[in-house]
Design goal:
The chain is mainly beta. The protein contains 6 helices and 92 strands. It has a 28-stranded mixed beta sheet that branches. A hairpin with a 2-residue loop joins strand 80 (about 875-900) and strand 81. The radius of gyration is 46 Å and the shape is elongated.
Length: about 1100
């Protein structure tokens, strides 16, 4: 950075020397420890002095180099004085003409380092001990230029890097680096300057009340800042993690980074390098400096002082226009950044302050922000831009960002732009970002005018105020309440590919005739108008979200295009008008509207009033729509009470919104007018009501009345199936137990969505639970019908192991759909008795899932089954019998998911209950060997199942969803007939490897039993009974494979069964291992 800034200043230095005649000079090229002066530099005669890069001047005290004749001083080497007070590196006597140039180093320092005297982990005491130390100083008027592209380092109180003690007839250019440590000190301090002041290099100061750059006199030319300028009184600019050990001397308050207390004829420019639009041109701004070597204005203060303070306590200040078309005639242009950061807790932050000290400040043309101005604090006030009393700035144009963050207590204020009483600002144009963000209970204001002069705010960017506290007026985007002559806030149309403009936060107007014009983008916040005749206009696709309050004047609201206003509007009781055209929509409550002329020409007036809406007239045309809200439970509904004329053209619509379900049926007088025309134009098909209801209009122009009839649709009109129809009345009465669930039904506009929502309200009833547990038991028992099922023969006894899986499904039909899956494992031990066959016991664990095929409802089962069985093989005849008993734990979950006013409504009801399943089966089969390897085996069997389920009470779903379900009993008896074709492969020797495959076909015929009906009710509701669909007969088929050796056998079986129009499938794998 030092090299960069040194290069920055070499060009003006070279130009000066090139334009001056060559003079003799005295060169200091060695280490010198005594002072030197131009008046006697050349053996007692006056001469220019140049300290070469190899030379140095390092006296013990006093003034190292004195310019006391009409000569020049150039330092390319080093100047140093250590440990002496009243020490100066280069000093010009009063009234001298000459030039001071530093490209080397000047160090006026001391051998003092603060220590930790109290052993608390941080340094203590002052930053510096000495005083009155200066790098470059003029003690009076000076004619000539002062240029620094080197480094100046000063340690001392009441000291400065560069201090000009009188008028400078010439220019001041700093392009190097200045560092000053000490209280009440300056990086650069200057009075009047006839030429330009260019701060092109870094300036940093640290100390109480210390200012980085203080320009306290008039500047005839321009002030250009294009470097980092910083000031702080803190020992550490960044707060440490633990601030509890900090002492008072760690938290001193410094001064501003930049103070401008005089007039500036050529304006103030905070600049940055130009954009690189032409890689071949190294100096696109034609300032004589290569763009890559230019710095950027970064002006920052850590502490309460303003980062930039413009103005004087005693003198009037004029900031003239900056030269060049890009400045737009403005006196202040900020292309770089300005930041005021309080840093530590409860220390305010201030960015740019103009005026407010006592003297007037006038800025020609206005101020442009292309870069950023910011203020931040940790829990305190923060103000980014403040125009104090006496400041006159015609306009602020923001293309960049003006932001403030901070706040904590309820009294703290966080403000981006503030115009104090006594200041003047006519307009603000924003295409960038103006934002204020307050924490905890702080208040945020993006634009605050306390002067009453701000009459126009134009936004095509973003203006926002946000506070963690959402209280009234805690976040104000634009506060123009002090303006009594009329103000306009206008949000303009932007290009289609540009980000839509936004205003976030409240807008406050004063007592004049005010206008809020939103032509694009969004406005989110409340607007309060004063007592004038005010206007709110929305156009294009603009949206407005928030309340609007008018005063007692005659106010106008226009909504055009596709705009939308969502919020309540209080018209204040004047002679007002509200006009909707195109497809514009208003949604909110209307108040103070007795004098309101309402025109709805193609738009939608979705009022939320549940009571009288007083109007002077209403005119609905162009297929426009008006809203009606009915809260039958509260006995309130929207009624347009029109003192004058009410007119409805053909195609006029009424949008009906119901607050509850069960009590909404009835007739409602929705329009009562002094004179009515076209009431009959509102026809049934132009009414919009929830799908659950139907409506009709009864209108009488003679009586000036329009009445609305609401009726509940029948189950047939709703397209309900049997189960939905049986539960309909009970569900209808229960919905109002949960406002959100009821609201979701009232938001349904089509039959499919309604039936889907209603299906979620029903318990398991279609037979899925019975199918789940009986399928599981039958899959486990199927091994008995296989004479060659793997069996580990241990002599007088044996055992087997198997795993099963099953699944089936059913369509919605007249009840409900289901999808069933399950798996399980079982094993058995049996005793061999010879001619009587084998007697055994088996134990199984079976887990099933019965999910509703149309939603997320499901019942999960855990089944523990004990069975006793017998089987025997007498030659070609095979017989078996089985009896089983199972304890079943059932867990149900019902999910309700729908939408209410754009918000998802979700409920979950859970339940658990027990069941007991008893089963019995028996069968015979006879095998016919047709060849040595091929056989047929006809078989017949009968099975019976009886399931008893306990009742249960759901919980967690709320009063509109939870059901109380009674116990349920189901049973079924079936006969099965099939024929099995089998083929043997491999060896016929049982001690060798063998394999057999079988295919089966047949039919299962139900001969008795039925699925139990489901009786349920909602809390305090009446019972409803849901009937299952009758189970059906069907064809059966299977594929079975078994193989192994004498010590190991493995068998697998796949079965399919026609049931309820679908295929129920089961799998079985059986294992036998010889021990």
């Amino acid at each position: 950075m030092r090299q960069l800034y040194a290069c920055t200043c070499l060009t003006p230095v070279a130009l000066i020397f090139a334009s001056s005649p060559v003079q003799a000079e005295t060169v200091v090229s060695t280490a010198r420890t005594t002072a030197i002066a131009t008046s006697s530099a050349n053996a007692g005669s006056a001469d220019n002095i140049r300290i070469s890069t190899a030379g140095s001047v390092k006296p013990a005290s006093g003034i190292a180099v004195t310019l006391d004749s009409a000569n020049t001083v150039v330092n390319e080497g080093a100047i140093q004085i250590t440990g002496a007070n009243d020490a100066v590196g280069i000093q010009a006597a009063a009234g001298i003409t000459g030039t001071i140039t530093n490209t080397g180093s000047i160090s006026i320092d001391e051998n003092f380092t603060p220590t930790d005297t109290d052993n608390d982990g941080d340094k203590d005491g002052p930053f510096a001990q000495g005083a009155r130390r200066f790098g470059i100083r003029t003690v009076g008027t000076f004619a000539g230029n002062i240029l620094n592209s080197g480094t100046i380092s000063v340690e001392g109180n009441n000291s400065a890097g560069i201090v000009l003690g009188g008028t400078l007839t010439g220019s001041l250019t700093h392009g190097g680096s200045i560092t000053v440590v000490g209280d009440n000190s300056y990086g650069i301090q200057a009075g009047a300057i006839s030429g330009n002041a260019k701060i092109m290099g870094n300036v940093a100061v640290q100390g109480a009340n210390s200012v980085a750059v203080a320009l306290q006199g008039d500047i005839g030319g321009a002030l250009v800042i294009q470097s980092a300028i910083s000031s702080t009184g803190y020992r550490s600019a960044t707060p440490p993690t633990d601030v509890s050990k900090l002492d008072a001397d760690d938290l001193l308050q410094g001064g501003s980074a930049l103070v401008v207390a005089g007039s500036v004829g050529g304006g103030i420019l905070f600049d940055v390098p130009p954009r690189d639009t032409d890689p071949a041109n190294k100096d696109e701004d034609n300032d004589g400096i290569e763009d890559a070597k230019e710095g950027s204005a970064v002006v920052a203060t850590k502490g309460a002082a303003a980062a930039v303070q413009i103005g004087s306590a005693t003198l009037n200040t004029l900031i003239g226009p900056i030269a060049g078309a890009s400045a737009g005639g403005h006196g202040i242009v900020i292309n770089g950044s300005i930041l005021g950061d309080g840093a530590y807790k409860d220390v305010q932050g201030n960015g740019l302050v103009i005026g407010g000290l006592g003297g007037n400040v006038s800025v020609a043309g206005g101020m442009t922000v292309n870069g950023s101005v910011a203020a931040s604090s940790n829990g305190a006030n923060a103000t980014a831009v403040r125009l104090g009393s006496g400041a006159t700035v015609p306009t602020i144009k923001n293309v960049g960002s003006i932001t403030a963050t901070g706040g904590s207590a309820a009294t703290t204020l966080v403000r981006a732009v503030v115009i104090d009483a006594g200041a003047s600002l006519s307009s603000i144009t924003n295409s960038g970002r103006i934002a204020a963000t307050a924490a905890v209970d702080g208040s945020a204001v993006a634009i605050f005018d306390n002067s009453g002069t701000l009459s126009l705010v134009v936004n095509s960017g973003a203006i926002s105020a946000t506070s963690a506290n959402t209280g009234v007026n805690k976040a104000i985007a634009v506060d123009l309440a002090a303006n009594g002559s009329g103000a306009t806030v206008r949000q303009t149309l932007v290009a289609a590919n540009a980000a839509a403009p936004t205003i976030t936060g409240n807008i406050l107007f004063g007592a004049g005739n005010d206008l809020l014009d939103i032509a694009d983008g969004s406005m989110n916040g409340a607007t309060r108008f004063g007592a004038g005749n005010n206007r709110l206009a929305l156009a294009g696709d603009a949206t407005y979200g928030g309340d609007v309050t008018f005063g007692s004047g005659n106010d106008i609201v226009t909504l055009a295009g596709t705009t939308a206003l969502t919020g309540n509007v209080d018209f204040g009781g004047g002679t007002d008008s509200l006009s909707l055209t195109g497809t514009a929509k208003f949604k909110g409550a209307i108040a103070g509207s007795a004098g309101l002329a309402l025109s709805v020409n193609g738009g939608t007036l979705a009022v939320v009033n549940k009571g009288p809406v007083a109007l002077s007239s209403i005119d609905v045309s162009g297929q426009g729509a008006i809203g009606v809200n009915i809260d039958a439970k509260a006995g309130t509904f929207t009624q347009y009470q029109v003192s004058g004329a009410a007119s409805f053209a053909a195609g006029s619509k009424v949008l009906v919104s119901l607050a509850n379900v069960s009590q909404s049926e009835g007739q409602y007088l929705i329009v009562k007018a002094g004179a009515l025309t076209g009431g009959s134009n509102i026809v049934a098909n132009s009414l919009t009501v929830p799908f659950l209801f139907k409506s009709s209009i009864v209108a009488s122009d003679a009586l000036g009345e329009v009445k609305l009839n609401i009726q509940r649709k029948s189950a047939t009109e709703l397209g309900l199936n049997g189960s939905q129809s049986r539960a309909y009345d009970a569900v209808f009465k229960a919905l109002d137990n949960d406002v959100q669930v009821a609201g979701s039904f009232l938001n349904i506009a089509d039959g499919a969505s309604f039936r889907k929502a209603l299906q979620q309200m029903l318990p398991d009833h279609a037979g899925g639970a019975f199918e789940t547990v009986t399928q599981a038991s039958r899959a486990t028992a199927r091994f008995l019908s296989d004479p060659r099922a793997p069996f580990s023969d241990q002599g007088g006894w044996g055992f087997w192991l198997q795993q099963v899986a099953w699944g089936t499904s059913k369509g919605l039909g007249n009840t409900a759909s289901y999808d069933i899956t399950g798996w399980g494992a079982s094993g058995g031990v049996e005793a061999k008795t010879g001619s009587l066959g084998n007697f055994g016991l088996s134990l199984a664990y079976l887990a099933g899932s019965d999910g509703d095929g149309s939603n997320s409802n499901e019942v999960n089962t855990n089944q523990y089954e004990l069975a006793a069985y017998w089987r025997a093989n007498w030659g070609k005849l095979h017989a078996h019998a089985r009896a089983s008993a199972a304890l079943i734990g059932l867990k149900g979950s019902r999910f309700f998911s729908a939408s209410n006013a754009g918000q998802t409504v979700e409920r979950r009801a859970t339940s658990s209950w027990d069941g007991r399943l008893i089963g019995a089966s028996a069968g015979l089969a006879y095998e016919l060997s047709l060849t040595r390897r091929f056989s047929l085996r006809p078989s017949a069997s009968v099975d019976y199942y009886h399931l008893k389920e306990d009742g249960y009470t759901e919980k967690g779903g709320g009063a509109a969803l939870n059901l109380i379900v009674s116990d349920r009993t189901s049973d079924e008896m079936a006969v099965n007939g099939s024929i099995i074709a089998g083929m043997d492969f491999g060896s016929k020797d049982p001690n060798s490897t063998w394999f057999r495959a079988e295919i089966e076909g047949g039919r299962r015929q139900l001969i008795g039993g039925q699925i139990g009906s489901t009786t349920a009710h909602f809390t305090n509701g009446q019972n409803f009974v849901l009937l299952p669909e009758a189970r059906t007969d069907g064809w059966v088929g299977g594929l079975r494979m078994t193989g192994g050796t004498s010590g190991f056998m493995l068998g697998g079986e796949f079965n399919a069964e026609q049931q309820q129009g679908r295929a129920a499938v089961a799998f079985r794998v059986t294992l036998a291992i010889g021990l």
